[in-house]
Design brief:
By secondary structure, the chain is α/β, with parallel strands linked by helices. The chain has five helices and 14 strands. It has a six-stranded mixed beta sheet with strand order 1-2-3-4-5-6. A hairpin with a 2-residue loop joins strand 11 and strand 12. The longest helix has 12 residues.
């Protein structure tokens, strides 16, 4: 899987392009504030055509750029209040789009409708796009329920293999194993 990521906007939210390979269809995950120019450059550089927009949650730094596209935004219904444009309801389960199979994993807590997208990386490993639920060395704040956030971390993310690559909504990539060993919030969630 081709994965291209960049940070945009005043909060430096990560936007990702996922595709089976360069020169074809792709999905755009979290087209946030001020993402239009870097997104256009990344699409051109890799010869990609977006066929779907996906959101890990509804905060503007992750969805505001979706309004500039002719595609609806795939968003969990619990976060619909934050996005005024056309949307498609996301539900937990398998999503097949742009030649990719992604698992949609409900992660309520940061927001009621937070989700992760998990898939198979080209090298045979797994990757998961966690939005603002899990970062390198930290977790997101809870605009929903702190208990839900802790449950999402414990039952959904900590069950993943240690070598799973984490692509967060802000900051650098990490792995589940690294976060399990060093992230104080995950250590507390495992207890």
């Amino acid at each position: 899987m081709l994965v291209v990521g960049f940070a945009a906007g005043p909060l430096r939210a990560n936007c990702y392009l996922l595709a089976p390979e360069p020169g074809g269809e792709c999905v755009v995950v979290d087209p946030g504030q001020e993402s239009a120019e870097p997104l256009a450059a990344a699409l051109a550089e890799h010869g990609l055509t977006p066929v779907a927009l996906l959101a890990t949650h509804g905060h503007p730094d992750h969805v505001a750029g979706a309004a500039g596209h002719d595609l609806p935004l795939h968003l969990h219904p619990a976060d619909r209040e934050w996005f005024a444009g056309p949307s498609v309801a996301l539900a937990e389960g398998s999503l097949e789009v742009a030649g990719l199979v992604l698992d949609v994993v409900a992660l309520p807590g940061h927001t009621p409708g937070s989700v992760a997208f998990a898939g198979q990386a080209s090298e045979g490993g797994r990757l998961v796009l966690t939005g603002d639920t899990l970062f390198a060395g930290s977790i997101g704040r809870s605009d929903g329920s702190g208990a839900d956030l802790e449950r999402s971390l414990r039952t959904k993310l900590l069950t993943l293999p240690d070598d799973t690559v984490v692509l967060p909504g802000h900051g650098p990539a990490t792995t589940i194993g690294r976060e399990r060993a060093t992230n104080p919030a995950l250590t507390a969630a495992e207890a």
